[in-house]
Amino acid sequence: MRRWTGWAIGALAASAVAWLAFAPEPVEVELAEAVRGPMEVTVDQEAEVRVHDRYVIAAPVAGKLIRVDLHPGDAVEPGQVVAVLEPLPLDARARQEALGRLDVARALVREARSQVARAAAALAQQTRERQRMEKLRDERFVSPEAVERARTAEETARAEAQAAHAREAAARHDERVAEAALLAIPAADGKPGRLVELAAPVAGSVLRVMEESERTLASGMPVMVIGDPSRFEIVADVLSTDAVKIPPGAPARVEEWGGDSSLRARVRVVEPYAFTKVSALGIEEKRVNVVMDPVDSLGRLGDGYRVEARIVIWSAPDVLKVPASALFRRGEEWAVFAVEAGRARIRPVKIGHRNPFEAEVLEGVAAGARVVKYPGNQLDDGARVRAAGPRQTS
Fold this sequence. Notes:
The chain is α+β, with helices and mostly antiparallel strands and 394 residues long. The protein has helices spanning 2-22, 92-138, 144-181, 240-243; strands at residues 27-33, 35-51, 54-58, 63-65, 75-76, 81-87, 196-199, 204-209, 215-217, 222-227, 232-239, 251-255, 263-278, 284-294, 306-323, 328-330, 333-340, 343-354, 358-363, 370-373, 385-387. A hairpin with a 2-residue loop joins strand 17 and strand 18.
């Protein structure tokens, strides 16, 4: 018995030495924890800052432009003369065209006035609705979120009313421009008509001067652009599949604008018309303009400046989440490798919302569980693993 016992112990020792010699090395993996915390899903897109209302001052008739003395950044007042034209004589055909443009301009003024009245009525209705919601909230019949939606609707209606007034001012300006076109009718002695003065329709600043030197312009050629630099909006064109997820009033952040912190903004409108745009890869995409109003001051940002817009379409203050890089497909479901006692175990998980960096976990793992990031093909259920050390940077 002693002899057999010695042989058995020797065989076991030899087996242990062989296993240690030929056993596979633990796979080195990068680990992360499933944690609880805030999470949000955003639509990120390059955007552009632009003046809320811009006005293009154009030559109403063909004529000789007198040299323009204004420069970009100069302030102008309503009715201030910003350019002067010496019109060329009109023939009979051009005169009829000028009369037709005047009729169109007057019709647009009437339409703009009706839009102002409609926007004022809508604003009054939203104001009454907000007041009713606040009263119902005080009586605990509606939630605070309903009051917030009513306030957002009121602010949107107020912005639309302001835009309607701006469109009316622009229509009146176009009417004056159309009337000025008739000044080019030759006088009885055959001399050219009197000079045509181009006036600023609103108070603001000169954004751009297209024609500064004295030269002959064709009818309709732009001379300068005027806008109010204190009223900006941010416009981002997003994929139509993302645009349907963005509600009016959604919060947004403006980043990569040149400052150290992000700026707050809020979606005013998602335009109802999609347009086709060719991507950098040559793929035709349907995109939609999303217009946002800044909440914080934009500082030194100006018309046409590039920024990055991050529009929040979902957020929660406390969810269980794992890195998106830990997920992989296993048949029709998602799964992760959870590390337990030094071994990787496949754990099916149910995923909720996702963003490029994190995923909401509804079931499958608990808070504090360690999961493998970037799992490779060498990993399998039950494989021995060890945490990778900190990466060395040179």
